[in-house]
Specification:
With 78 residues, this protein is mainly β. The protein is built from 1 helix and 5 strands. The protein has a single domain (10-77), classed as Purple Acid Phosphatase, chain A, domain 2 (4-Layer Sandwich).
Length: 78
């Protein structure tokens, strides 16, 4: 999901939007600022932006590695 409105606590608004769905990983953007939040065996990721630093000090992206039984991610600063 891209996201909307103020970047402040956007991950909470997105999590609420999906509260009636079964999910393990949510990926969102809009803020251009990277985030990785692990909560209740769920993962909420924002890769940031490799090209725009609107609300961030650095350009970033997230490398996501999905395995049958495990999820790994790496926040990469450019």
């Amino acid at each position: 999901m891209h996201g909307w409105g103020s970047p402040k606590n956007l991950h909470k608004k997105i999590e609420k939007k999906f509260e009636n769905y079964k999910w393990d990983i949510l990926i969102f953007g809009h803020t251009h600022s990277a985030a990785a939040i692990e909560k209740d065996n769920k993962l909420i990721l924002n890769p940031g932006s490799p090209t725009e630093k609107r609300f961030a000090k650095k350009n970033t992206y997230i490398k996501l590695i999905l395995d049958k039984n495990k999820v790994n991610y790496e926040l990469v600063e450019i």
